[in-house]
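Next comes the chain:
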Amino acid sequence: MLLTTTFYVEGYRIRRYGPLVASEAVMGTNIFRDYFAKVRDVVGGRSGAFQTALAEAREQILHEIQIQAQKSDCNAIIGIDIDYGEISGGGKTMLLVAAQGTAVYIEPE
């Protein structure tokens, strides 16, 4: 299935528009990830634990919107928007990843 952030695909035409497809993932970070992220925040550098969690969440939600599109007999999703966020409180941190796009059926021109 073709996934794109653009609203058209060069060399293809949209034969049919399907539904809006969307998915969200909220992932908890465990105490060790939080601890090492705080250390990285002080000394600088990238947090591999958070990067891995975000990548896993992104893959999961992209897979979920593909399933939604397939159920609507579509073969592509256009205009995909991926958003990232953090929900914090009470000494805990949750990572939020959300994606939405339009399912379509495309065919070569």
Remarks:
- The chain has a mean pLDDT of 85.
- The chain has one domain: 2-108.
- Residues 5 and 79 are 4 Å apart (CA to CA).
